[in-house]
Design goal:
elongated; 10 helices; two-stranded antiparallel ribbon; 12 strands; 40% helix; single chain; ten-stranded mixed β-sheet; alpha/beta
């Protein structure tokens, strides 16, 4: 009988390309990971990895197994969630904190998915900025899972007791009013934007500081038309002709008419999206949610590009 724990470890070894990388992600030792993979090889009669001192290259058999393993593990999580739902009642609820632009893009799609509806896992939502949703995890009971973003390496902190999973990067785009006469998708230089009015973040915030440094590195000192931390408002103001703006892809789901997005090679910025949870959050519910979220974000080209399909376990900060 194949051990599901070994299948999860297999996916992590393939994702990281080494036993040590998988061990760090899972909280095991490299020796324990190696022993699990050896046991899986004995159970299946297949050679799964070509081992070297620094890497573990998956064989064709391992890659084939990983594709089936992802589905098997999702089915196991669904079984656990159904069992909990038939038992104590409230165990099927997932208390989720999520930031507004991700909620706007992902949650309507999730709630309409027949696969999600059949699971019977209900969501209790707290939609807010990362600093607020992290507080729901700090207090030890308000939330099971928080989806947050971070621009750069500073400005957002969470307790070391929380587990973290990187979801993907949400790229920022330079947005201009269509009436300014530059075609959407055009490649322009930062110098060409120097004399234009801009809609910028309120100064003093961590995001604003990162953007200001990026602009300064391009010798771009924008003329401020407005300060605004609401991306929907920034998009509407840009569409009305007030100024250019820097807006992440997820916030452009309901983009208004009258704006164009440009390619500015010097202005490359993304916000990293993380999932945070406490150690006692129910694994089955969290994994099921994360599997479906990953499927939705792949349609937006957000998420790890070279990972095995299926759930990637949480790791410590």
């Amino acid at each position: 009988m194949i051990n599901p724990v070994h299948l999860r470890t297999l996916l992590e070894v393939i994702r990281h390309g080494s036993f040590s990388g998988a061990a760090t992600s899972l909280g095991y030792t490299a020796s324990a990971v190696s022993q699990q993979m050896s046991a899986l090889e004995r159970d299946t009669g297949a050679t799964l990895f070509t081992r070297s001192a620094r890497s573990a290259l998956p064989t064709d058999a391992a890659l084939a197994m990983s594709r089936h393993a992802a589905k098997v593990l999702t089915d196991i999580d669904a079984l656990l969630a159904s069992t909990a739902r038939a038992g104590s009642g409230p165990a099927h609820e997932l208390r989720l904190g999520i930031f507004p632009s991700l909620a706007t893009f992902a949650l309507p799609r999730l709630l309409r998915m027949p696969e999600w509806q059949r699971l019977g896992v209900s969501l209790r939502l707290f939609v807010g900025e990362p600093a607020h949703t992290i507080q729901g995890l700090r207090t030890g009971g308000d939330l099971d899972l928080a989806l947050v973003y971070q621009v750069g390496q500073a400005g957002l902190a969470w307790p070391s007791t929380l587990s973290r999973q990187w979801i993907g990067d949400d790229d920022f785009r330079v947005i201009l009013p269509e009436g300014w006469g530059i075609r959407g998708g055009s490649r322009v230089t930062a110098d060409q934007l120097a004399d234009m009015p801009w809609i910028m973040h309120h100064p003093g915030t961590a995001d604003a500081t990162v953007i200001e440094r990026l602009f300064a590195s391009c010798n771009l000192h924008p003329r401020i038309a407005a300060y605004c931390d609401d991306f929907n408002a920034s998009l509407e103001l840009a569409a009305a002709g007030l100024g250019a703006a820097l807006v992440p892809e997820l916030a452009m789901v309901n983009r208004p008419e009258g704006i164009v997005a440009l390619d500015v090679p010097e202005i490359r910025l993304a916000r990293s999206i993380f999932a945070l949870r406490t150690g006692d959050a129910d694994d089955a519910r969290v994994r099921l949610f994360m599997d479906h979220l990953a499927e939705i974000l792949r349609s937006k080209s957000i998420g790890p590009k070279h990972t095995a399909p299926g759930y990637a376990p949480f790791s410590g900060r």
